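dumping this here so i dont lose it
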């Protein structure tokens, strides 16, 4: 698991620190990782999801190229 640290300044409010912590969690992908592991996903379903994502990305690359 990722160790996310936020250093608190002397005159910094808790709201600012909390906002910075949330932003770092979002950037690290921690929230997405937790959601992905929330339920068990069968290997066949996982492979199908990855294939669909690859098709989507290929279509986007083709559209951008033209």
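and the seq i came up w/
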């Amino acid at each position: 698991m990722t160790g996310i640290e936020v250093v608190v300044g002397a005159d910094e409010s808790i709201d600012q620190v909390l906002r910075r912590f949330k932003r770092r969690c979002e950037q690290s992908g921690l929230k997405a990782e937790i959601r992905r592991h929330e339920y068990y996903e069968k290997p066949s379903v996982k492979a199908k999801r990855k294939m669909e994502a690859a098709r989507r990305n290929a279509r986007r690359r083709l559209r951008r190229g033209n």
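The chain has one domain: 14-65.
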